[in-house]
Design goal:
It contains ten helices and no strands. Helix content is 71%, strand content 0%. With 271 residues, the protein is mainly α.
Length: 271
């Protein structure tokens, strides 16, 4: 007599297999760009940098949509992160269109700063290089690295995957854009006529713009990390908001105009 080598199926085995198949089965086909593997950090960086010279592969329309909603409803921007995780196996962007548009905005606002600060052509170019490569990219890499270490070491569940450094840098870029609009664009229209004066209302308006910019940065940073399922206690990021408000009150008491200090800092840095 011949015996079968396969085990006899049991009710529990059938039940488990049915449950697993019901979780994975779907009446809809998976997205065409869905990935089941996870690329290494080197491959992700190479793919991201390679697209800098391929403008036809950048989705500028979607990047513009993100910039708009980062100013009016930043929660909607981060709802798309889980979709990117499910389709491309990563939270970080694989399209540099947002960074390209952000640099373009910095170029435009730098012209406004050059006019306010009365800079010549050489100083304007030097100012632009400082703003793009130091203020935005280098400082952003430092902030992203610090938050990346803190979230992976103290806020992440041990069994969950690490937070991607590229996503931490994306969070900085997202949080950087609304303060850029407030400090490098809207503020310029009121600087000479009102903010640069030695009045209390001047310090109040200038410092209030700074308060709004820093609050935007902190809140959008919080949203960026709160959408990651494996992170806990992300609300600790919001603890810095009362500290920022306390600093704002102190500057008003001592009548320290932060906007004037920013202009002096930018002006003497390019001399």
């Amino acid at each position: 007599m011949k015996y079968s080598t396969s085990p006899v199926p049991t009710r529990s085995n059938n039940l488990l297999s049915g449950m697993s198949s019901s979780r994975t089965a779907s009446p809809l086909p998976p997205p065409v760009n869905q990935r089941t593997d996870c690329m290494s950090a080197t491959n992700k960086s190479y793919k991201y940098l390679r697209r800098f010279v391929k403008f036809d592969q950048m989705d500028f329309e979607y990047a513009l949509w993100q910039m708009l909603y980062l100013c009016i409803a930043p929660q909607k921007v981060y709802r798309t992160c889980n979709y990117r995780k499910h389709t491309k196996s990563q939270f970080a962007r694989d399209d540099p269109a947002f960074l390209v548009l952000l640099v373009g905005c910095l170029c435009v606002t730098s012209l406004g700063f050059a006019w306010v600060l009365s800079l010549d052509i050489g100083q304007c170019i030097l100012f632009l290089l400082y703003v793009v490569f130091v203020d935005c990219i280098f400082c952003g890499m430092v902030v992203a690295t610090i938050l990346w270490i803190i979230t992976n070491r103290y806020l992440r569940e041990k069994t969950d995957p690490d937070v991607e450094w590229g996503y931490a840098f994306d969070v900085h870029l997202n949080a950087f854009f609304p303060p850029l609009i407030l400090l490098h664009f809207i503020q310029l229209f009121f600087y000479h006529a009102l903010i640069s004066q030695n009045w209390f209302i001047s310090a109040f308006i200038g410092n209030t713009i700074w308060l709004a910019a820093l609050s935007y940065y902190i809140y959008i940073t919080f949203l960026g990390y709160s959408v990651i399922p494996g992170l806990k206690n992300t609300r600790i990021i919001l603890v810095t908001l009362p500290l920022v408000f306390l600093f704002y009150v102190v500057t008003l008491i001592i009548r320290w105009n932060l906007s004037i200090s920013l202009m002096y800092f930018y002006h003497y840095r390019v001399l």
